[in-house]
Amino acid sequence: MVEAGALTERTDKPIIVASQFGNTTACVDHARQLPRKRGYEVLVFHATGTGGRTMESLIDSGLVAGVLDITTTEWADELVGGVLTAGPTRLEQRRAQVCPPS
Q1: 19-54 pLDDT tens trace
Q2: Are 22 and 71 in contact (CB under 8 A)?
Q3: What 3-state DSSP class applies to 16?
Q4: Cys-Cys crosslink for 51: which of 10, 40, 42, 45, Cβ 3.0 to 4.6 Å?
Q5: Which of 16, 12, 23 is closest to 48 using CA atoms?
Q6: 62: exposed, middle or buried (C-beta count within 10 Å: 0-12, 13-18, 19+)?
Q7: Which of 70, 91, 85, 68 lies closest to 23 in space, CA to CA?
Q8: How many CB atoms lie within 10 A of CB 66?
Q9: Which of 76, 96, 97 has the alpha carbon at shortest distance from 85?
Q10: Distance, CA of 10 to CA of 45 (rounded, Å)
Q11: Do residues 90 and 75 touch, judged by C-beta distance below 8 A?
Q12: What is the pLDDT of residues 41-89, one digit of tens each?
């Protein structure tokens, strides 16, 4: 069993989500540096179908301040019958609002 003490410090940062795949890794790594410097936490989701659906679920929850949807592999796979599709509604819903960190 693991024994752990209570957390004493809480670091609530606004969340930005990003989509990434092997061919866009360098771009996403570069793009997430500016938000991090401005106090955002950047969560990266791999564009493998499940990753995109999970990212959009988090966006829909209202917990996301912004989106770096750089990788459109899932959308392309949906259009041409690929294996990494996230479904026909991928890229349709964007409810995130960009807000400055508090």
Answers
A1: 999 899 999 999 999 999 999 999 999 988 888 889
A2: no
A3: strand
A4: 45
A5: 23
A6: exposed
A7: 70
A8: 17
A9: 76
A10: 24
A11: yes
A12: 999 999 888 888 899 889 888 889 999 989 888 888 888 888 888 877 7
